[in-house]
Amino acid sequence: MKSKxxxxxxxxxxxxxxxxxxxxxxxxxxxxxxxxxxxxxxxEKICQPLKLDKNQTAKVSIAFKEFFTEMDKLxxxxxxxxxxxxxSKIDALAKIRDNKVKKVIPENxxxxxxxxxKSTRPPRELNPLKQ
Length: 131
Prior knowledge:
The chain is mainly alpha-helical. About 65% of the residues lie in helices and about 0% in strands.
């Protein structure tokens, strides 16, 4: 009798775990961060470590906000999962953003900025089919 109760509890636990492990009901899965969340991350991961003043921080935030806005225009959100634009288009936008930032921050800090900027990039998904 005790083994039947234990087996029933185990089955209910497994069933509950499987149900909660499913994706969100809307079928979209995890949502990308908002512009405000991205700008907050830029402030924490770039502006604060570089010890930029308020004026520099504001200008860097504007450059990144423009970059994020243009990226949102290029991403195809209609497909599931959203399709990223060509790398050449992303690199062109990043170059424009980096040139704006380069005008704002001291020249000796720019190399550190490049290192920090790489830490803000989303993780790359490895797709074994695209080799």
